[in-house]
Amino acid sequence: MAGQKRIRVGVVGVGRGLSMGTRGTLELVALCDTWEERLTTAGESLGVETYTDFDTFLGHDMDAVILANYFHEHAPFAIKALEAGKHVMSETAACHTLAEGVALVRAVEKSGLTYVFAENYPYMVFNQEMRRRYQKGDIGEFKYGEGEYVHPDPPEIKLGRSCGWDHWRNWIPSTYYCTHSIAPVMYITDTRPEKVNGFVVPFDHEDPSMRLTAKVQDTAATIICRMNNGAVLKSLHGSLRGHGNYVRIHGNKGLMENCRHGDKMRLRVWKEPWEKRKGEPTEVVYNPDFPVHHRDATRAGHGGGDFFTTYHFANAIRTGEPPYLDVYKGVDMSIAGIQAWRSALVDSAPMEVPDFRKEGARRKYRNDHWSPDPTRKGKKPPSSILGRIEPDKEAQALAKKVWASKGYHI
């Protein structure tokens, strides 16, 4: 990376954003956030300009913007940045409604600029190794896959991440946070979901890690995806017990998965005894290396994924080559969760995942603003399969205490 021109970047969101914007050839030059106290502290520590207004921030002399703002607000910010002539790397989700997905795709195409979807789980070491082996044909054609992102926490931790009753983490439906589980399988196999069926584990009033929070959405969700090559993918994500992320790929000539015990970065490859080549082992378990920049990646967060999102963003800007996780894949992954929630609300009936590479699909959904966001106007779907959930007095008292400790006062 030495000798390469540095790319001047501004980051929106000084929480998550500060772990994304200063690697490799990215030079952090500006920060933007509405939490002024935290913003000022970060700006002074890093010696960069700070802004509380996004439009003013876009006037700063910089090449690119990294969006680490709220989950449901990325698309409008990305569109504004593209219109201002800035390359964009957007955290998950790419869009919050199907209409936003259409508008985002059109904005990227019109701008001619680089857009990277910053989904980091595909770049964990075992997922990159599974992609390499799948592309070589080691396990044949993809037939069935599983992606899991299970993330339980005590109520105090959940509340500390989601200050305010209308914080997105409290009301976003359980199917929406699906890209960590769907993206690795799409990346390994180069497939996309065409239809989804959504299933929900309802809000558990007996579980203190749910009841003593500000959450009004369900415990977990499973999405069954029918992929464009005929394969089936099961996505599981939510607050069930048993923290971990796992990926499993069944081909018609073998199986690959990361290990569920011990070192979970290890990869397990299985071939049936009656199918394997002579001298080839039936089962292999090993620790793969990252394909490039192994040392830098092993020091980065999210199993190395945080290194590779910014690495590929910088490369795409410098070369002008389309990134792998482009706007189309980002929108595919994001709207799968939206459509799965529609499915869950009608007894898990199948819903299409429209392909916004096609103008006909864009026309059909360009005015689809369906959203459970409590701050948006119009009729809204519920955030829980059970309907409206109200935090009880004990949850309200704990929320006020935790939020006050974070500097957030109701």
Could you provide a short overview of the structure?
By secondary structure, the chain is of the alpha/beta class. The chain has helices at 36-46, 54-57, 74-83, 98-111, 125-136, 155-161, 168-171, 179-189, 208-211, 294-298, 305-319, 327-344, 359-365, 393-405; strands at residues 7-12, 26-32, 49-51, 64-67, 87-90, 115-117, 142-150, 193-201, 220-227, 232-238, 244-251, 254-258, 267-270, 283-286, 351-352.
Structure explained in plain terms:
It is a single chain. The longest helix is centred in the last third of the chain and has 18 residues, at 327-344. The chain has 14 helices and 15 strands. It has a nine-stranded mixed β-sheet with strand order 14-13-12-11-7-10-9-8-15, covered by helices on one side. Strands 3-2-1-4-5-6 form a six-stranded parallel β-sheet, sandwiched between helices. Helix 3 (74-83) packs parallel to helix 4 (98-111) and helix 4 packs antiparallel against helix 12 (327-344). It has helices at 36-46, 54-57, 74-83, 98-111, 125-136, 155-161, 168-171, 179-189, 208-211, 294-298, 305-319, 327-344, 359-365, 393-405; strands at residues 7-12, 26-32, 49-51, 64-67, 87-90, 115-117, 142-150, 193-201, 220-227, 232-238, 244-251, 254-258, 267-270, 283-286, 351-352. The protein has two domains: 7-117, Rossmann fold; 121-292 and 319-365, Dihydrodipicolinate Reductase, domain 2. Helix 3 links the parallel strand 4 (64-67) and strand 5.
Mean pLDDT: 95
Which bin fits the share of residues in helices? Answer: 25-40%
Cα separation of the termini = 47 Å
Q: How are helices and strands ordered from N to C?
A: EEHEHEHEHEHEHHHEHEEEEEEHHHEHH
Low-confidence segments, given as residue ranges, are none
The count of DSSP E runs of length 2 or more, i.e. the number of strands, is 15
**How large is the radius of gyration?**
21 Å
**Derived structural class:** alpha/beta
Oligomer: single chain
How many domains would you count in the coordinates? 2
Dominant shape: globular
CATH H level of the largest domain: which superfamily? Dihydrodipicolinate Reductase, domain 2
CATH topology grouping of the largest domain: Dihydrodipicolinate Reductase, domain 2
So, CATH architecture of the largest domain?
2-Layer Sandwich
